[in-house]
Write a structure and sequence with these properties.
Layout: H1 4-14, H2 23-32, E1 36-42, E2 49-57, E3 62-69, H3 78-89, E4 94-99, H4 104-115, E5 119-120, E6 125-127, E7 137-144, H5 149-164
Parallel strand pairs: 3-4
Antiparallel strand pairs: 1-2, 2-3, 4-7, 5-7, 6-7
Length: 169
């Protein structure tokens, strides 16, 4: 796709190496896996690409794997607008991972999602390493929609481990 260079540059700059697949793997998933999609976020005025959202649609949930907007558009409401537009079209609960709140930036990210309707789950969660990477990352899950942490945490965790990270439960 003609927007791959923009998406891949933003992907590499917005996410540390341990929080993403290698580019060739990411492109392969987007191109070949029917459950994964990459949505380009464009500015309304001139249709210029300003961000992207990668998602996985499963039977009972949608998982947002990566979401980023270009640095020059941050704090202008574009990310919130894009996320709200996406959420308005989804009929299943939505799950995403966030870094633990350890500094003002990670706290700001969590507040961003909370202001969009996500709820922070309190149970301890560790993101498995992507293939070829090492080490689990302490993260937290956030949920949007009608899904209960007490009932669904293990099911969601197992799904992410198996389908996203190819890690045994």
């Amino acid at each position: 796709h003609k927007s791959y260079p923009f998406i891949e540059d933003l992907f590499l700059s917005a996410f540390p190496n341990k929080e993403r697949r290698e580019i060739f793997e990411q492109r392969k998933y987007i191109d070949e896996n029917d459950r994964m999609q990459c949505l380009l976020i464009k500015e309304e005025k001139n249709a210029m690409p300003v961000g992207f959202l990668t998602t996985w649609q499963f039977k009972k949930i949608c998982y947002i794997e990566h979401f980023a907007v270009a640095p020059f558009t941050r704090n202008k409401g574009i990310g919130r607008e894009a996320l709200q537009a996406f959420l308005s079209q989804i009929t299943t609960p939505v799950i995403l991972e966030v870094e633990c709140p350890v500094d003002p930036l990670t706290e700001k990210r969590i507040h961003f999602y909370e202001n969009t309707g996500f709820k922070l789950w309190e149970k301890s969660y560790f993101q498995p390493p992507y293939p070829g990477k090492e080490g689990f990352l302490p993260m937290l899950l956030m949920a949007y929609g009608n899904i209960n942490e007490e009932i669904s945490f293990k099911t969601v965790k197992d799904l992410l481990y198996q389908e996203i990270y190819h890690y045994p439960c």
